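Supplementary Methods. Inverse-folding protocol.

Structures were first reduced to a discrete structure-token string of length 602. This string, shown here, constituted the complete conditioning input.
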């Protein structure tokens, strides 16, 4: 690592929030203690890196040379790793990643499909540097793009490279970044602002948080370049207070950059100055909308305002402002360093470059995935994601966060780019990708996301405030078995009204989960309403449990576990569920031995 004497072994332990939660800090402490006890300080170095991306396998560690990847580490594994790998040069096979099908150990990180099928630009430093050491970032070419932009390029040339790259905002709207910067650059006024949206609030999304935790200097460098392009000398990073590690590392990065003359007055002796501040948000989802975010920075309640005027013309405190999200800025240094055409060579005709997805849900490999735009959904879910948990069938992928949409199995080969995803009925959003298996009830999924949108509506405009509430009422009624004929048509009418009449992106996209599930899973709505049946067996009020007398072996397991004593029976006597007492919790279904499968759920 930069700034450290060369060591034979570098042990890079993931220090992202996910791995912290699974005790990676204790693993680091034990590794360092084992090295100290064996007097191996001259031979091995333990480094806490940012998020590695393979979050579900945590704590994870990569050992160089060789790039040997270890997963599910425990503090007590430290001694064996140091003894076998560092002292004897023999990697510990039992801690390696195992192939999902064959169970064969795959020693090297680069050979694991989760990593080998990705193309990293925004995540290029993940798991490779200590995010709290600016020397590590500089050692891998960091701040060279900022230096190039400040010393060799005019504002017009920077914007031309961004336009040539085809980079579109990664926060959700997908507006061309170079065009946005050009608008702000041409706006008149002595004061302009450059802002970063780190207010990531989508359920299941953690892309921006991980970039800030793993590579904060990349975001700062992108903002310096943006500031030069539009002529801004002050900026804000709006990050929610629920991200303490990201906030801490971002603060450290800003202090280090300032100490080295990369922020503040006279950056790199060019005469250009830029001061950045962190503004902590309180966690309101609507503050991810650009005008609401800026209103919040101004010290007011975070609520959107009508556009035009657009922020590039009249933004923060009425001054021209460029706002991009974390991932967008993290791409910028690579575009300036390698050229816009290099970036444009990746992706599709209209969606250039790569996109980071937070892959979660019923998939074997949960984590951060960066792939070229246009990569098929099936590649991400089945190959990089390792397929569906417990061998179940893929049912749908929810893309774009709470106001995204669901893409069903028949469209699993859809390309993950702005145009294809929209045509399939979802939105790219900021990159949340939640995989659902055959057990998911799509009516309940729509209810869940509508509940979120209703709570997060700021209430400023009536269509969003009242429309989301009314749609949730209808969905709750359906999932409780109280659906009525005409409810589907009512949902559609409300959805289009809210979509067309709401003020900001929250309301305009909130109906998407309902519309996309109606588009692909209408029969499930019809079953809930017309047959009083939940095909997936999720909606408690519509589920019915019975014991198959032909299969029941009177083992007593269901009777023992039933929380309300709703099962009667005795040894060698076939059991029976007392329907009047059953609360439909499903405990009997879960505990009945699979070799019997005597509980019927309908």
């Amino acid at each position: 690592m930069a700034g450290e004497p060369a060591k034979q072994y570098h042990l890079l332990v993931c220090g992202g929030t996910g791995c912290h939660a699974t005790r990676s800090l204790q693993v680091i402490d034990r590794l360092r203690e084992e090295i100290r006890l064996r007097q191996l300080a001259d031979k091995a170095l333990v480094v806490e890196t940012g998020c590695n991306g393979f979050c579900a396998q945590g704590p994870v560690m990569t050992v160089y040379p060789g790039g040997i990847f270890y997963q599910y580490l425990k503090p007590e594994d430290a001694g064996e790793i140091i003894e076998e790998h560092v002292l004897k040069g023999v990697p510990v096979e039992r801690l390696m990643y195992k192939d999902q099908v064959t169970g064969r150990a795959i020693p090297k990180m680069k050979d694991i499909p989760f990593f080998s099928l990705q193309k990293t630009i925004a995540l290029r430093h993940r798991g490779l540097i200590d995010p709290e050491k600016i020397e590590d970032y500089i050692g891998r070419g960091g701040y060279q793009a900022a230096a190039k932009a400040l010393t060799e390029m005019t504002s017009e040339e920077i914007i031309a490279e961004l336009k040539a790259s085809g980079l579109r905002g990664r926060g959700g709207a997908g507006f061309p970044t170079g065009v946005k910067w050009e608008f702000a650059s041409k706006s008149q006024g002595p004061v302009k602002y450059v802002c970063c949206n780190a207010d990531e609030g989508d359920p299941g999304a953690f892309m921006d948080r991980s970039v800030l935790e793993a590579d904060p200097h990349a975001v700062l460098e992108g903002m310096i370049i943006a500031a030069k392009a539009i002529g801004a000398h002050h900026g804000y990073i709006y990050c929610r207070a629920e991200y303490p590690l990201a906030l801490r590392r971002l603060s450290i990065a800003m202090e280090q950059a300032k100490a080295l003359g990369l922020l503040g007055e006279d950056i790199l002796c060019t005469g250009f100055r830029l001061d950045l501040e962190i503004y902590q948000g309180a966690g309101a989802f609507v503050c991810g909308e650009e005008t609401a975010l800026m209103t919040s920075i101004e010290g007011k309640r975070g609520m959107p305002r009508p556009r035009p005027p657009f922020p590039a013309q009249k933004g923060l405190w009425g001054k021209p402002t460029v706002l991009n999200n974390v991932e967008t800025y993290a791409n910028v240094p690579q575009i300036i360093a390698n050229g816009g055409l290099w970036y444009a060579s990746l992706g599709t005709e209209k969606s250039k470059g790569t996109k980071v997805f937070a892959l979660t849900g019923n998939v074997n490999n949960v984590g951060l995935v960066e792939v070229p735009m246009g990569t098929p959904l099936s590649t991400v879910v089945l190959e990089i994601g390792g397929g569906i948990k417990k061998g179940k069938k893929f049912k749908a992928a929810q893309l774009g966060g709470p106001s995204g949409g669901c893409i069903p199995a028949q469209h699993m080969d859809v390309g993950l780019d702005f145009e294809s995803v929209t045509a399939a009925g979802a939105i790219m959003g900021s990159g949340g990708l939640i995989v659902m298996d055959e057990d998911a009830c799509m009516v309940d999924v729509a209810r869940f996301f509508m509940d979120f949108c209703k709570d997060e509506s700021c209430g400023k405009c009536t269509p969003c405030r009242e429309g989301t509430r009314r749609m949730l009422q209808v969905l709750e009624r359906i999932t409780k078995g109280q659906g009525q004929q005409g409810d589907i048509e009512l949902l559609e009418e409300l959805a289009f009204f809210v979509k067309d009449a709401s003020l900001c992106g929250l309301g305009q996209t909130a109906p998407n989960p309902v519309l996309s599930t109606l588009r692909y899973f209408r029969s499930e709505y019809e079953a809930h309403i017309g047959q009083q049946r939940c095909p997936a067996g999720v909606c408690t009020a519509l589920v019915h449990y019975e014991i198959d007398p032909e299969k029941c072996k009177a083992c007593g397991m269901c009777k023992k576990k039933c929380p309300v004593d709703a099962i009667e029976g005795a040894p060698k006597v076939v059991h029976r569920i007392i329907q009047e007492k059953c609360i439909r919790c499903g405990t009997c279904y879960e505990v009945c031995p699979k070799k019997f499968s005597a509980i019927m759920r309908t």
